């Protein structure tokens, strides 16, 4: 226990015995007694999507490297409920929730906040603009891609979007459309 006094000889005897018995401290029990500090909830989109699987792998590795414990709740906006994930996270006394699902909306972030969970966003933005967020420069990247195609003389450019209503889809689309002259767009755009 940090800050507690144990005589050095007693400490050494306990450590030798623990090593001989193969004792390892229970990280989950330690996290639970620490009251919301070391467990991080992750609300992830479809893990069959290679992008999401890669992101999930990198995030969990980074959390483990910092001695944090990830708990993932896959989220299917059609069949799932954020309430179930929030309830699970409350039971495990999660300290923060990383939201990465494509369908993050105000309802999802409000549910997390009402449950006492601190949301942070990865490759998404907080609809309320209050929580920390990290994402690629999607708008600027899409603008630059469109400018590049126009500068190269492309005359018929199609936009292949992701799922409708997705923040990344809408942001990229806005960037493309901001820089593509109407004459370059090959109708119809394909969702």
Keywords:
5 strands, 191 residues, single chain, five-stranded parallel β-sheet, alpha/beta
Describe this structure in words.
With 191 residues, this protein is of the alpha/beta class. Helices cover 43% and strands 12% of the residues. It has a five-stranded parallel sheet, with helices on both faces. Strand 1, helix 3 and strand 2 (69-74) form a beta-alpha-beta unit. The protein starts with 7 loop residues before the first helix and ends in a 12-residue tail after the last helix. The model has no long low-confidence stretch (mean pLDDT 80).
Q: Based on CA inertia axes, which overall geometry fits?
A: elongated
Determine the structural class based on helices, strands and strand pairing: alpha/beta
Question: If helices are DSSP runs of H or I spanning 4 or more residues, what is the number of helices?
Answer: 7
Rg calculated over all Cα atoms: 23 Å
Question: How many β-strands, per DSSP?
Answer: 5
Low-confidence segments: none
| Biggest β-sheet strands, sense, barrel | 5 strands, parallel
Whole-number mean pLDDT: 80
The neighbouring-strand order within the major sheet is: 2-1-3-4-5
Secondary-structure element string: HHEHEHEHEEHH
Distance between the termini: 56 Å
- Into which percent range does the helicity of residues fall? 40-55%
How would you summarize this macromolecular structure in one to three sentences?
With about 190 residues, the chain is α/β, with parallel strands linked by helices. The chain has helices spanning about 10-20, 25-35, 50-65, 80-90, 105-115, 140-150, 165-180; strands at about 40-45, 70-75, 95-100, 120, 135.
